[in-house]
Amino acid sequence: MSETGKEVRARIEAALYSSGRALDAEQLASAAGITSKKRATDEAKAIAASLKTAMAAVEVVEYPGPRFAMQLKAEYNNVARRFATKPLLSRAALRTLSFVAYFQPISSSDLSARRGSQVYEHVRDLEEVGFLVWERKGRSKLYRTTGEFAEYFGLSTDVPTMKHQLERRTMILR
Fold it and tell me: Considering only the top CATH level, what class is 91-169?
């Protein structure tokens, strides 16, 4: 592999390692400083193959799209949890996310009335990690969860099923 090829692979590895979520081919190509989505996808697949033999606890998973995520294998989550220092989202942002998931679609005014004015900071954080999207409805915004949210928490993308799963897992913090 050429020096340029090593740099492309290293940049994709860095993006996968630091993102904490699945990245699509466009995002990987951008991180690598290349324009070819196919090359970015091929490099991510090569990283996944090399990690399979080199690492016991870490893997690169390919999701439909294709999207790729570097993650800990499930059987090592308990060990890692003991040493993890900073959560992906604050407890307050997770509460806001649970309200959106349960009441979706929910308007910004309803969300603010239920969660208070700090909700806009939570919404920004949730959009940043790819768990929320919004659409305009008159002068207000309607918020919904994304497929990435469902995937991250192991939930169905079907809203009624998701609500049932959330109730069963007692994620809703009223």
Answer: mainly alpha
